[in-house]
Here is the input.
Amino acid sequence: MTINVARMKQTRAEKIDAMEAIVSKAEKEDRGFDEAEQEAYDELNAEVGDLAKRIERAERVAEMKGSVAKPVGGVSKAAQAAAGAGDQVEVEEEAEPKGKAAATAKDPKAKGELFGQFVRALYHGQNNPFLAAQYAERSGMASEVAKALGTGTASEGGSFVPTTFAAEFIDMLRPASVFRSANPRLVEFDGEGKIVIPKLVSGVTAGYAGENTNIGFGTATTGDVNLTPKKTAAVTAVSRELMMRSRPGVDGIIRDDLIAGVSEAQDTRLLSANTDSGTAPAGLIGLAPAGNIVTAQAASIDAVTIGIRTLLFKLRTKNVKMRRPVLFMAPRVELWLMTLRDGNGNLVFAPEMNDGTLMRIPYVATTVIPTNLDTSTGGFGDETDIILVDMDQIIHADEMAVSVQASDVAAYHDGTSVVSAFSRDQVAVKVVASHDMDARHNEAIAVLRSVRWGNDLG
Here is the structure.
């Protein structure tokens, strides 16, 4: 007996097309089914359900068959027994490629490409999971994508991505995000959607005690870090031609564009001076105590050493352990520091910065830190910030619930103005991912404000 899974899937797709045609005709005429249409629809629906069960059984037999040794010249006895005495089971599949290509063809795809396939299928299904599942089946996408769409749910903001795909997406956000890659404490929201972590305000009193003398008594003063999911809505645009293709690597491009959009949106907020709004998290600068915010001196070697030294002093005097200290700065500051020379023409900071540290502290340069601030009295509008933080004291939480929506007729903001995806022949993809951030010890953050170093670079 030969079980032709590919043919059964094709038949199922044809029957689903017929169901869609019945629905479309009735909707176009703004009416319900007539008696004949209802009968035809019910019959097709039953046949599709029956085919789904047969396909599942056949794939299960194939899985069992592959789990036992296959003798040369025939199938295993276990597979024959599964089909019936004397029958031979054959599940038709594409020829299996050799070498590295085998893993790619058999199993989707590089990490996160299932997410890209999910987005592309949603676009072709016009954000309808039912239609998207059909497209995924027809276009040869991974079976996991079609199954996820077939059982998925839609929300007002788009279709929810399956937890497994969302987890891969979040995992890939971590190295892409400047904030996350600086190594804060990473946690995940549970089903209740809230995390409460004790916040140490002051420590326990301790001391020495002699014989027959009282031991000193003291208690720790604590508060709470309350983390709740806050939605990040990021929009990225890709060409419509890209969405129409299924060539290797396309899903990776879509995935990478979405990761870049979400990570930039979140980094911009998390490194800002914003406070917690209830719907968006605070930024590191917004969490810094007023006493830990220092004004920079005019550009010079001394200004750099005094400024960074002052930030260190602020943290050290508050008993911050400095387990994972990081400096965040704008690229223009990094370039200015890298080219700063002393009176003898020697580069002052470049030798150390080539190894990724400044005054022995790891640093990160990122464009999400603005350089057009006006933070000092009579400011110039060309100022920026440098942030010193012990990331060991920072908690970042992700929710493993991501939703996406794709449209070629939507409008989006490109950073300068609102543009039409339709007029640009693009597809706008909106991704909604929830997260939150807070500090266990706010004194672990210090900020050098009104920095004009390198302002001649723009």
The CA atoms of residues 229 and 292 lie 28 Å apart.
